[in-house]
């Protein structure tokens, strides 16, 4: 099983995030958006925290497939080791109809944080929390969505407060995605949500957040007994522990 290519490893280490194009086919993305409509996730506001939704792993196999998607699983093993776990997951919906609100820039690696560290040692990369963000709608240049300060996951020094603002901040990069693309980023990257400004369409994204197997970020683990999970998915959803933990690659 090959993990990240040399180019992907270089880009992830350099930027703190990696764009993986064309992970989900367009037809699947459309079906998933329909599922969201059917479950009443429509007419969202623009506040990315208010518009979060969960529990989508019970919506069908196409949603559960996101846990260990074959195009992403080898990359996750590279970034988190072979006994990583899915810690939490949520979706985001945003529309420009309400007053734009941002989820400001947060996290910074200037001091080692046990929860969301980034360390590269030799050929290996270690992360406290990795986010896999599936775009279910196009995110065009400049319209909003995920943004970050590339490279900040490796910064050694405290970031001056003025750089935490989104407006007129030349350090911030908004990352465009096509529907079906994935952005993988390390939580230790300084990142946030750019206000959604596109008047003719909503943003819909689904974010899955993974830890090494010994660590739990959320207050409680996810439901590993959910109906329909494969054995590997069950192993990935287990709570945090170390002793005799099965490898997700077995
Ligand atoms: O809008 C986004 O994709 C960023 C989400 C975010 O900041 C987070 O999950 O911590």
Question: How would you describe this structure to a colleague?
Answer:
It is a single chain. This protein is an alpha+beta fold and 250 residues long. It has a single domain (6-237), classed as Jelly Rolls. It is 17% helix and 23% strand. The chain contains five helices and twelve strands. The protein has helices spanning 6-15, 26-38, 61-64, 73-80, 231-237, and strands at 17-20, 52-53, 85-94, 103-106, 118-121, 124-127, 130-135, 145-148, 173-174, 182-186, 191-194, 203-211. It has a six-stranded antiparallel β-sheet with strand order 1-10-7-12-3-2. It is globular and about 50 Å long. The protein starts with 5 loop residues before the first helix and ends in a 13-residue tail after the last helix. The mean pLDDT is 91. The structure holds 2-oxoglutaric acid. 2-oxoglutaric acid (AKG) is lined by residues 48, 92, 103, 131, 133, 145-146, 191-193, 205, 207.
């Amino acid at each position: 099983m090959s993990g990240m290519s040399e180019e992907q490893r270089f880009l992830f280490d350099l930027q703190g995030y990696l764009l993986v194009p064309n992970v989900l086919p367009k037809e699947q993305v459309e079906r998933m958006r329909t599922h969201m409509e059917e479950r009443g996730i429509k007419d969202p506001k623009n506040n990315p925290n208010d518009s979060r939704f969960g529990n989508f792993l019970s919506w069908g196999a196409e949603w559960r497939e996101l846990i260990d998607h074959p195009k992403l699983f080898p990359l996750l093993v590279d970034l988190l080791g072979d006994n990583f776990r899915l810690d939490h997951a949520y979706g985001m919906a945003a529309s420009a109809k309400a007053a734009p609100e941002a989820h400001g820039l947060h996290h910074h690696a200037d001091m080692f944080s046990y929860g969301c560290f980034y360390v590269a040692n030799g050929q290996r990369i270690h992360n406290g929390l990795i986010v896999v963000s599936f775009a279910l709608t196009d995110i065009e240049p400049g319209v909003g969505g995920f943004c970050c300060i590339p490279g900040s996951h490796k910064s050694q020094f405290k970031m001056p407060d003025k750089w935490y603002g989104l407006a007129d901040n030349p350090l911030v990069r908004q990352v465009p995605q096509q529907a079906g693309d994935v952005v993988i980023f390390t939580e230790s990257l300084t990142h946030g949500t750019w206000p959604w400004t596109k008047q003719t369409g909503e943003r819909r994204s689904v974010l899955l957040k993974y830890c090494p197997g010994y660590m739990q970020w959320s207050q409680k683990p996810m439901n590993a007994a959910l109906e329909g999970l494969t054995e590997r998915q069950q192993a990935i959803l287990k709570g945090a522990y170390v002793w005799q933990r099965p490898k997700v690659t077995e």
